Amino acid sequence: MAETRQQGERIQKVLAQAGLGSRREIERWVAQGRVSINGDVVGLGAHIIPSDIVRVDGKQVRLESALDQDYRVIVYSKPEGVICSRSDPEGRKTVFENLPKLKGQRWISVGRLDINTSGLLILTTDGELANRLMHPSYEVDREYAVRIRGSVDDGMIERLKTGVLLDDGLAKFTDIQASGGDATNHWFHVVLMEGKNREVRRLWESQGAQVSRLKRVRYGCIFLPSRLKVGAWEELNNKEINELRALVGLSAIRLKKRDPKVNKDDVRRQRRAYNTNRTASSRSAARTPSKGPSQKGR
Predict the structure, then answer these.
(1) Pick the catalytic residue: 68, 114, 182, 265?
(2) What is the DSSP string of 145-160?
(3) N or C: which end of the chain has fewer CB within 10 A?
């Protein structure tokens, strides 16, 4: 049994993949004696095998998906008016309602978009990948298309790139590029290296500018595909997932072949999701000016 256990995965890696937290956080939990395997409190470096019962703070955690290493990553074109929480006491629609169904796993959202922001949202079953993509230390950049109502001068642009002191600290855009517009509305593509709450809007508002539309178009090396309808999702392939993993220092993986029946079920859900959001897509297209932001495809 000892030899079999040594062939298992380290406990901090498995718990991170299950989405419980980052490896560093879980290492602290282990050091604090909060993690047990089969009733015994374990230390750093402990290994886990599929038959083990793992508890954190006395509560059993499901680890089948993490041990099986069934990695999945999807890109989702979030509509306006939809929230990124799993549930909402006010009954508003959430992004999780139309995602592919999972067995023994859960979708983890890589960052959030507020209710009035549309565009690219990445979701994955890999907790460690999600945590790294969101952690400021990995400096994964995010790109947004933003429509500003009113005038924008060179001094404003320079201040936004140099840095503005907001309530929660210094913030800035690492890049700002004009991308069309008319006399009253101007489109820009802006890039951030972190994801503070409503940061894009707050930065522009600090200069007295009004954001009338906001759409995320890129997260790291992943662009929002131009072919992806509003409210629809698309699964990343092995190459794309490994590019995303390499961005945050994770090793490459080889995906397992999925059951074709599962894929067919996902396609049916995809069609239902698209039909549900056709109205939102039409409204979005009607509001977009002819000289709006360009959108790159993968």
Answers:
(1) 114
(2) EEEEES---HHHHHHH
(3) N
